[in-house]
Amino acid sequence: MLASVPAGWLMAAVATAVHVAALARWIPLRRFRVAYPLIIVGCGAGAVAYGRTEGFTLAAMLAMYAFSLVGLTVGLLPTRKLFTAWALEMNSGVTRDRYDVPRSHVAFCVGCVSVMALAAFALTR
After folding, report:
1. Which of 3, 42, 79, 88 fits as disulfide partner to 7, beta carbons 3.0 to 4.6 Å?
2. CA distance 63 to 8
3. Which DSSP symbol is given to 56?
């Protein structure tokens, strides 16, 4: 098995801290910095709880959470400049009807998260 439970908790905590810190830097909005860590931890707890009801071990679900967050952080790298520009616009009072993200950025993000989730699944089985 990839990780014991204490190492799984450490992996999940480090992945969460790195992900939240990266997005806080890329999206300089105070509301985001306050709400996003709570949202991401809540969603992670829900995912771990759901995985436990489906028969996965706690260590496997924590590894899946950590690997998926790393994939999401890497996947959002190309979009970081757009996030920063949009956040600065929001701070200055500009609102848009749509925030268009290039399809290549979306495909890269989906690919990164999928590859990392599959890697976590393969390594924990």
Report:
1. 3
2. 6
3. -
CA-CA-CA-CA torsion sign (21, 24, 25, 26)? positive
Structure tokens at 110: 């989906």
CA–CA gap between residue 15 and residue 22 (Å, rounded): 11
Matching residue, tokens 């924590």: 62
For the chain, the farthest-separated pair of C-alpha atoms sits apart, in whole angstroms, at 50
Q: Whole-angstrom Cα distance, residue 82 to residue 87?
A: 8
**Tens-digit pLDDT profile for residues 46-88:** 999 999 999 989 889 999 999 999 999 999 999 999 999 999 9
Q: How far apart are the first and last CA of the chain?
A: 7
Geometric angle at alpha carbon 67, from 1 and 44, rounded to 5°: 100
Residues near 30 by Cβ (< 8 Å), separated by ≥ 6?
none
Q: Which two tokens stand for residue 64?
A: 């899946």
> How far apart, in whole angstroms, are the C-alpha atoms of residue 121 and residue 123?
6
CB-CB contact of 19 with 74 (8 Å): no
